[in-house]
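In this section we turn from sequence analysis to structure. A common task in structural bioinformatics is to predict how a protein folds when a small molecule is present, because the ligand can shape the pocket around it. The inputs are simple: the amino acid sequence and a SMILES string for the ligand, here magnesium ion. Study the lines below before reading on.
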Amino acid sequence: MNIFSGILNGLGEIWAHKLRSFLTMLCVMLGVVSMVVITGFVEGMFTSWSRNLSERGGLEKVSTGNTEPPARQEAIAKLSKGLTLGDALQLKRDLPPGFVVSPEYEVRTTLFRRGKRDWVRLQGVTSSILAINRYEVDRGRFFTDLELRDSANVVVLGTWVAERLFGRTENPVGQFIDINGQPFKVVGVLKHYELMFREWNTLRWKNDVAFIPITTGINKVGRNEKLAWINVQVDDVDRLNETVDTITNILATRHNGIFDFKVSTSEGELASFAESRKNSVFFAGIIGAVTLIVSAIGIANLMLASINERVREIGIRKAIGATGRNIFGQFVVEAVALSLCGGLLGMAVSIGAIEGLRAIVPAENAPVLSTSAFVVGFVFSVVAGVLAGIYPALQASKLDPITALRYE
Amino acid sequence: MEILRFDNVCKRYPMGDGVVNALVDASFTINEGDFVAILGPSGSGKSTLMHLLGFLDSPTEGGVYFENRRLEDISGTQRARIRAEKIGFVFQAFNLLPRMSVFGNAKLPLAYHSNPPPDADERVRKALALVGMDHRANHKPGELSGGQRQRVAIARALVNEPRIILADEPTGNLDSKTAATILELFEELNRQGRTIVLVTHDPKVAERTKRQIHVLDGRIARET
Ligand SMILES: Nc1ncnc2c1ncn2[C@@H]1O[C@H](COP(=O)(O)OP(=O)(O)OP(=O)(O)O)[C@@H](O)[C@H]1O
Ligand SMILES: [Mg+2]
């Protein structure tokens, strides 16, 4: 008996026992769905996390921020002014030439424009921020080095800030807005950033910015000269640790030994994420495997029931010339056809389930449709079908034709 | 030429404390071209004998030889091949597959043939036409009368053009006219050189054959 007619025959059997077949397929289907959805969650977490990491500067970024000095230094804390533009210039001088240094100054203030207002985190920066934090100008331009030196009143807006002040249609470039009672010229608007749409956009913060030259920020807008961050981009991830040490040394000297700053990298975050990802994949695997075992047992059970019901058929086939192998093949093909149908059904349902979950689950943790999850779920279901089909098929192939024929 | 030989074959079934002697010391030979009737009352062991002839069953004692080979020397797979290619079975209880069409049922032995003939469908139609069932090819066995089912079972036995046909009460459910047609068909097949073993309890049917083996309580009473 050839494979093709075997499959046709198997499908016929499946159709002849609709309810039983449906229940079997349900087992496989649930196995596949749970596999795909669980892996989808894990993958989704990983994708959004790694995308966010790279949009924040990736692994090459070393961040230095202000912190409370340790308790033992409390008395002498006044000896340091915190991070300053001078620190950044010193770093730029002392670090290797391929490194980018980006000082960031921050003022929380309100932007005004013809009766419209917007409360933002206004950042005083240099053009280095483009390279380190991965920003691109979409319309207009970024401010020039000349404007930086002259503390010019120019501003570059993120798309959301621009939209809130100018609406969707008006072009902000070349227009003026009001910051702290001073007119600022909008010279550019940044690109719009989006990872997944609408309120799920995990990159929304990148659109909610306004940049002015750092000199303007310190001299004209803010009340002190303490920087919020000094970010450094190394040219090679291997030099990360070495750079952390260098920065710490330089700053410790400049701050008179007061440790009122903290140097950090994304490496720790990456390691802890890799760890938790490993765990999630492991647990997802266990849950998936359990579901698949359950569905395999379901298939085996239903196949055995079907064999009991078909003792006579098996006997007739054998009496007429079927070998044990023919019978074995017939039942395995049936099991595979069943689990294959269940697997396909499971894939369809998985797509629906993931789409549905994306609507309810918060964006950070939304599952994604990953091809690998599909392949794994599908292959596993078919394997479960085959494995579950083997024992019953073996039972069937060993049936004695005479007992089967005399079976009433 | 000898096809099948029984050498002091016994078949016993354990039954509670004792045993049922379904067949005792049966010895006979079936040669190429034979047309044999196995005759005996109900329960005398005819079907048991038939199953042994088609090696669906193995004897408790004694030797069964097919084409001069001991049954024990023929592997399970080879036995299946022989059944598929050289033996045509007509079972007492028809034994058609209920979910398959008449056509599918009649075609079944060809499915297990080691090299199925290219004109398989044509052969099936011819076999069905021979028993007058070609007009019901697409029906399910459940939609047929007992006699019609029997004729489909006969068509199934003919389709692989077997060397030997083993038929258990092939006319048991048929009216005398159809029965006569079937018997004529068997006679014709025998004239063409096919060996036929026909089980019956009806002496009138047995008369049509060339040779009769009388079975009584599991023993071969006499041969004529
Ligand atoms: N599996 C079995 N276990 C016990 N006894 C059996 C078994 N199979 C057959 N027998 C017995 O063997 C004897 C012969 O049975 P068999 O079916 O060969 O009779 P038969 O001649 O074909 O009868 P009929 O004309 O009614 O078909 C019977 O007494 C029957 O009860
Ligand atoms: Mg009988």
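The pocket of magnesium ion (ligand 2) is lined by residues B 46-47, 92, 168 (CB under 6 Å). As an exercise, try to locate the residues that line the magnesium ion site and compare them with your own expectations.
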